[in-house]
Design a protein that fits this description.
Elements: H1 3-8, H2 15-25, E1 29-36, E2 39-44, E3 49-51, H3 59-70, E4 87-91, E5 100-106, H4 108-111, E6 116-122, H5 129-134, H6 140-151, E7 156-160, H7 166-173, E8 183-187, E9 201-205, E10 207-210, E11 216-220, H8 222-231, E12 236-239, H9 246-254, E13 262-266, H10 270-282, H11 288-298, E14 301-307, E15 313-327, E16 330-340, E17 345-348, H12 354-361
Parallel strand pairs: 7-13, 7-14, 8-9, 8-12, 12-13
Antiparallel strand pairs: 1-2, 1-6, 2-3, 4-5, 5-6, 10-11, 14-15, 15-16, 16-17
Helix pairs in contact: 8-9, 9-10, 9-11, 10-11
Amino acid sequence: MTDALADLFDVEDNKGTQRMFDILRDPGVTQVCVNRHDRIFYSDQRGQKTVNDRIFAGAPQYIAWLNQLLKLTDAGYSDVTTARTSVIEASFRPDATDIHGSIHISTKELTHDEPALTIRKQPREIVTLDDMLNMHMMSPDMRLFLQQALQGRLNILLSGGSGAGKTTMARALSWYIDPLNRVITVEEIDELHLADRLPNVVSLMTYRSRDEEGRIIRETSLDDLVREGLRMRGDRIWVGETRGKEAYALVKACNSGHDGSITTIHADNAGQAIRQLVTYVMESGLTESVAREQVSRAFHLVVQIGRERMGRRVIREITEVEQGSVEGTQQRINQLYVYDAQTDGFHQVGRPSHRMVEALARYGVNYEDIPGRM
């Protein structure tokens, strides 16, 4: 622990505080959830949970630790009991701690009890596609295809449930960005951390300013940030998570030369991911048919990630979005790779369309050079 952190945590009755900080610093811990002072859970990379209900002597000690935790973040609050907000979301500050991640606190206004805390951690070291291959998250052919997709600047939707590993996948894919590309990242909380290894990255995060009554008096939303990113001459625009009308600004970016853009989205399969994105685009006032056409032009691939037996993450499917093609009211898709849970194997089941092969070729990537291609 640094001297600054040692001073920060040198508080009266700090045994619980120190124990919680030890848990946070454990590289094997990926998530911490505290429902109240005696309901503490933390998870490892496989999703296995550990329960520890004997860390804090009582609610006052827990509240004191939360206040200390806030000092390590960009929350702008120092006391969870007097913060005039129902929810506190923030990222850990790199000048205050070496922890990468974010916090979410539901205050007593929502819980009618002690505040509820969720901490999501990102690894300090970027997990690579080779690491994922060694963890049997994909096949060698899939691994190379994803590398080629990044180098060929395809626009990609990373889809999956909460904790599936979408952000981790985005960080792994970032290894194959040309260092000269100007990348604009847009997030509500700082999770991608692309500037840690790429020289030409601008990281933008949403901002809210509140008055003494907790009312928002100034706000910069994800939608605002994506539109600002278009003015900043970015080559690629990466949105940490799309879940609203910012989708339309991102789709416009993808359709106006910002090739190689990526976002994550919550969905259970590739088809649902596309439908969800279409719904978000419609929030900007477009009809369903126009929104679907815009999405199909903007994105090339959906990479679906999920958890299987024993919490192991796998790529369940890599699917091409077919431009302008519909079946009934559903966007047509072309499955390229799938995971078979019964055999625990990965299979190529389709070949990219001429549109995708041409898109790759624009940036010097020859699909025919990928081993094992159909």
